[in-house]
């Protein structure tokens, strides 16, 4: 399943003609409000932190308003460790509690993946972008054709 903000289809699929985007939108299986997704659970692509798998709040849709709707696809993954806005959204959405009070963080203080992320453990997060995209492609969900550079 792919969830996209309808207003952004043209900017997301720049290489397609406007008519192709319209055809895609007209063939949508269902159109729903983002608010209708709140508090719904989803399955993650990667199964790291299996010891926290019993805590469904880790994979729940919550609401946040700190992004502009013309700059995102509609789904943003947050973690309480990566900034004030993410932290606030996770607190308000009750994402903070984990099994026995644990909170999973996949990145260490040096910006490298922790041992729990065994495929990329010890490697700098941004150095893994291409490998992660390759893994997702092999899962046959979809193909990602570009990487948006991160400015730190």
Automatic annotation (TrEMBL):
Any one of the GO BP annotations: isoleucyl-tRNA aminoacylation
Organism domain of life: Eukaryota
SUPFAM superfamilies, sorted: ValRS/IleRS/LeuRS editing domain
Keywords for the protein's UniProt record, in alphabetical order: Aminoacyl-tRNA synthetase, ATP-binding, Ligase, Nucleotide-binding, Protein biosynthesis, Signal
UniProt name for this protein: Putative isoleucine--tRNA ligase
GO molecular function terms noted in the UniProt entry: aminoacyl-tRNA deacylase activity; ATP binding; isoleucine-tRNA ligase activity
Organism: Streblomastix strix
Higher taxonomy: Eukaryota, Metamonada, Preaxostyla, Oxymonadida, Streblomastigidae
Signal peptide location: 1-18
């Amino acid at each position: 399943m792919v969830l996209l903000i309808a207003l952004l289809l043209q900017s997301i699929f720049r290489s397609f003609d406007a008519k192709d985007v319209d055809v895609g939108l007209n063939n949508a299986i269902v159109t729903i409000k983002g608010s209708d997704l709140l508090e719904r659970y989803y399955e993650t692509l990667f199964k790291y932190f299996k010891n926290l798998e019993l805590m469904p709040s880790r994979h729940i849709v919550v609401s946040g308003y700190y992004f502009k709707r013309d700059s995102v696809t509609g789904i943003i993954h947050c973690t309480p460790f990566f900034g004030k806005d993410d932290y606030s959204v996770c607190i308000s959405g009750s994402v903070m509690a984990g099994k026995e009070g644990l909170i999973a963080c996949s990145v260490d203080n040096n910006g490298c993946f922790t041992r729990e992320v065994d495929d990329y453990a010890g490697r700098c997060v941004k150095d893994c972008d291409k490998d992660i995209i390759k893994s997702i492609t092999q899962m046959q969900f979809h193909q990602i054709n570009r990487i948006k550079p991160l400015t730190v």
